[in-house]
Amino acid sequence: MTVLLRADGLTKHYGATIALESVDFEVSRGITGLLGPNGAGKSTAIKLFLGLLKPTAGSAEVLGEKPYDSIEVRGRLGYMPEDDCLPTAITASEFLTHMAQVSGLPPAHARTRAADMLRHVGVDEERYRSLGEYSTGMKQRVKLAQALVHDPIVVLLDEPTSGLDPGGREEMLELIRRTGKEFGISVVLSSHLMGDVEATCDNIILLDGGHVAEEGTISGYTRETQTILIDVDDKRDELVAALVRLGINATIDGHSIAVEQDSDEQFDEIRDALVEVDARLRRMTPRRHRLSDIFRSAPK
Amino acid sequence: MTEPAGELYDLGYAHYEGPREGRMRARKAVYSNGVRTVLGLGRGPLAKALPMLLFGAAMAPAVILALVASQVEGLDVPGHSAYYQIVSIILILFSAMIAPELLCPDRRSGVLSLYLVRPLTSTDYVAGRWMAFFSITLLLVYSGQVVLFAGFLLSAAAPLDYLRDHWLDVPRFLGAGIVVALFTTTLPLAASAFTLRRAYAAAFVIGVFIISAAAGGILTSCEDEDHELLDTPGECEPLTGEAAKWFGLLDMGKVPIHVSDMIFAVGDKDSGLSREVAKLPDIVPIGWYLLLTGGLALILLWRYRRIAA
Fold first, then answer.
1. How far is B158 from chain A (nearest CA, A)?
2. Contact B43 A77 (CB under 8 A)
3. How far is it, in rounded angstroms, from Cα B145 to Cα B151?
4. Helix locations, chain B, DSSP H
5. Most exposed of A60, A70, B111, B167 (fewest Cβ within 10 Å)?
6. Has residue A271 got a pLDDT over 80?
7. Which of A196, A132, A131 is nearest to A166 (CA)?
8. HSE (CB half, 13 Å, CA atoms) of A143?
């Protein structure tokens, strides 16, 4: 599998502060989440891959080249920063055309790509309006569009849903999924929001305190557990008592009842207990691991 | 049956297969965008007003001088070097207001971060912006000189004789134009590198210009026997005596003019305040000009390397 980004013993110190310490990881095609709490080293890692910072030791490679030394490779990278980065006085169309040219595209091609990209992110009709008049959601789309306008091989997104309302966030996550799956542009999504990563990513790299705490596929972290969750409309406590009487390890877990499953026969016993107390069953489902669990289990 | 007027296609996403011209294209894009920014192209009417005013203000002295020369025979009309003396003041004032537009908004709105992750260094970026402003300034001062030269030529009794006697003015104003434009480009851009607000940069440059002109003027002025201040320095002993020629260097608006005057070889004939400075060896005003212009350029580059890191 093609390795797009490679951190090899990557270390970055700011004076006495250690941002990243001898980090090794690889990013291949697809959507990869760079997850971690604030101060974990996510932004430093992104800046190292963009060539904005020079590593203290080790290397950050993009497509086999070091972007700090070889700036031409940056023409194949896209970047959407977390902070504001749009001018206010010019139109989205002019801005994107200009950014495409700064990425190396000739003017005629840049104009076509800018129009196409604005259509893909859904700001087609507003493209001749001044960016200062745009809503937060539209600005985020233009920020994404400028990162994609030169058709990069990999795009780095820093907290792309920051400041968006739930509707806007959902639309942005959908755009990110489309970028990865439909446009075929690999994505590195840096976020401290597990929901964003869970909803979009194939793989994750968990950074904590300047180290890689975990890495793997999302499905590996969200697989089913041996716990069954039962939701009933009423008589919850009676049902727990009935289950315990049948020798089942049942406990109250939030609004649900959690049962540690040890055999398939248990489903019959649960059914019997439900009939016995005459409780109305709403839902019965295996519990899945959540990404938030890895934060708790990650070594400190 | 009528033919359908057109068909709709969902084109989907298509990868870009065209040419990628890398760093050279990026530099050109920053330059041409800089030119558009200075001229206010692609922006509202207000953004265009200031450059148009500048153009008018810079051309007016040339047009007036040319008209006077054509209408009044035998009058000793100030020439090409005097034009630079007038226009350098106009240029500094307007550059102070226009140049910050090239640098401040990009840093203030965060657009700079998008430039620096592309195939472009901070030096490429700032050099592109600088070149954009320099070329427009140069074009402007040359336009004024061309109008002036054409005016003098056409109003001369014998244009061919005029051309034979004055052709050297052309390389002189071309060379001196570069000297003036280098300074009036670099000073306001260097000031703009230190503030996010255009108004602060403009106020700083105009402040430096006014205060230094006042300081230079007072320290090189002189008074007659009745202790009346004279505004024709050089015709009496300056208040600051021998040191006056050094104090003349203080006037920032005159820094490029001292060198421009030397190029026109007018020496101490009609160069106003620079008269005192003319008593210094030529190398001093030239060195002072190079030190200031080069120093400001280095500060500008250094500042952007710091911002990029």
1. 49
2. no
3. 10
4. 22-39, 45-71, 80-98, 100-108, 111-116, 122-155, 159-166, 169-192, 198-220, 244-247, 255-264, 274-277, 283-308
5. B167
6. yes
7. A196
8. 29
> Which tokens hold the place of A222?
């969200």
**pLDDT at residue number B227:** 62
Query: Would the CB atoms of B19 and A106 count as touching at under 8 Å?
Result: yes
Q: Report CB contact under 8 Å: B110, A85.
A: yes
Instruction: Calculate the dihedral angle through the C-alpha atoms of A134, A137, A142, A143, rounding to the nearest 10 degrees.
Output: 120
Q: Which residues contact A187 (CB under 8 A, 6 or more apart)?
A: A30, A31, A32, A154, A155, A157, A176, A179, A180, A200
Helix (H, G, I), strand (E, B) or coil at A217: strand
Please name which of B59, B63, B131, B52 lies closest in space to residue B97, comparing C-alpha atoms: B52
> Chain A contacts of B33, Cβ < 8 Å?
98
Contact A52 B308 (CB under 8 A): yes
Q: Which of residues 174-233 of B touch A (CB under 8 A)?
A: none
Q: In this structure, what DSSP letter does residue A160 have? A: T
Helix axes A136-148, A166-181, angle to 10 degrees: 10
CA end-to-end span of chain B: 67
Location of structure tokens 């990069």: A152
Q: What percent of chain B has pLDDT over 90?
A: 46
Asked if ipTM goes beyond 0.90, one says no
Rounded distance, CA B136 to CA B84, Å? 16
Give the nearest partner residue to B109 out of A71, A84, A146, using CB atoms.
A84
Q: How far is CA A125 from the centre of its chain?
A: 29
What percent of chain A has pLDDT above 70?
Answer: 95
Does residue A94 sit at the B interface (CB-CB below 8 Å)?
A: yes
What is the rounded CA–CA span in Å between residue A155 and residue A151? 9
Asked if B305 reaches chain A (Cβ–Cβ under 8 Å), the answer is: no
